[in-house]
Predict the structure.
Amino acid sequence: MTTDTNCLFCNIVAGTIPSTQVYSDELVIVFKDINPKAQIHLLVVPREHIISLNEIEQRHDVLIGHIIRLLPKIAKEQGLNDGFRTVINTGAGGGQVVFHLHVHLLGGKGLHGVGFVE
Ligand code: 5GP
Ligand code: ZN
């Protein structure tokens, strides 16, 4: 599995940089965003270092399916019973700041309007 010792999220996956983890399994970890944009703001992060959606290949199909099915389960565990928002920023032009693929899972108070504005 690819990792990059210079990558922030690889270091969080490895535990060398701390995070507030809410879930983990063999493929992903889920932890709280350090700068939450809503009452609940989690990041679903593959253990493998994949830069962005631009680098997704067919071999990632199991991982992607796993993440998509996991999202509603985590949302319900967090008490988001009437819905949640998911965001994937891709590339600098898409607002991506950390270049290790991640899905934002947002919900609860403070979630307004459409989109995701810094
Ligand atoms: P992006 O803009 O790349 O989609 O989102 C990166 C996210 O990572 C941002 O929401 C930012 O607050 C979060 N983030 C950046 N550094 C850290 C960190 O060290 N720990 C945690 N938990 N989140 C971080
Ligand atoms: Zn990484």
